[in-house]
Amino acid sequence: MAPPRTDRGRLLLVLTLAVAVAVFTATVPLLRDWFDLRVYYGAVNSWIHHGGRIYDYEVPGTTYGFTYPPFAAVSMLPMALVGLHTAVVGSLLLNLAALALVLHILTDGAWRRYGWFGCALGACLLPLFEPLRDTFSFGQVNLLLLALVLADAWLLSTGRERPAGVGIGLAAAIKLTPAVFIGLLLLARRWRAAAVATAVAAAATALAGWVAPGASRFYWTQALWDTSRVGRLDYVSNQSLQGILARLGEADRKVWAAAVLVVLGIWAWRTRRAVAAADWPAAFALTGLTACLVSPITWVHHLVWLLPSFAVLIRTGHARVAGALYSVLCTSVVWLWFHDASGIDGFLGSNTYTWITLGLLLWLPVGQLRGGTPPLPRSTSATAAAPRTAAPEMTPAVGHPGPPSGTTTATGVALGPGRGLARNPSSEPTGSTRPAASNPQSSSSRASS
Known about the structure:
This protein is about 50% helix and about 0% strand. It has 18 helices and no strands. It starts with 6 loop residues before the first helix and ends in an 86-residue tail after the last helix.
């Protein structure tokens, strides 16, 4: 069906879609009632106003409490100054700002080409994405962490390397999973950025240790190793390798460790290819996929880390594949096996999102350039050649010109003059631990992660 040709017809279509999406999100999806935000808020208020211990707090009537590293609680201290309703509004605004930044980085301003109509259609599609709507309705922090990590991806892609690593370091201090992006920096031989990320994460953790020494000691010696605090490994929302094994009844940690090593090997191989092709967006997308797979617990709302993969698919000419996978992730299909994930159908259906993540790790396009654009030039800043009298400035080699100022690379990131992927030439979590709710489509019984 052809799109409407008049502004009036387009406006009518957008309003119709907006109403349909509003009805869908109000009646069909799992509604979370800001459950995780209430965990954060209660833990911080108990700590500041009642002298309680961060990891002792539980939401009244539940067994769920705070599961993040202590720095996460320190960063949430402003909630102690406001009421719960204000905290909810603040969470919504922060998530909206983070989503705007994520979309701006992933699309590199491509939305300008589509005008208000294209942007409105995109806005209607976003609330359908289950990980995204869960992040908002839980009051989760996933989008904020994704924004921090992608900000570093943008800095590295545009040659602004001095502050690169700060976002990854902060994200890793708030939640451990983003620490895998430090591994990406090491694979790419971005030693400075890796050192900055490590130093920022260590400094933030040390600050939390100074502010809350007892909580820090408890977390790093006990809470971190107790997965039961987070939720059941076999809960259908756990879309990680460990979740698959748990639903199969396989409790041997050696099997899980072997699977993790295989995935890490695939990630290292494919990420090195992305780095060699100067493809930062693909490298960061592959790392986000890997983080979801190897984490012991990856709840559905953690899968916002798949958004960079969809952007890569679209930019490499695989929009139909991206649309099909995105559509599946809008269906809440895994919840059909909420009560019973046994049998072949349970094995395939209850792990649907994990299969998508694994498939993207294996087949996400890497280094595919648009329009015959040549590969990005590699910076020689790490080992600059000796200066020559006749040539005080280095110019691009013949046949490998740097992109002109303001152009966009095939990987979808705007670059300044001669800026590419510089290389050294020397070559947790929300889950249910209670019995299953009779109506999972309206359940909010999940812990903070």
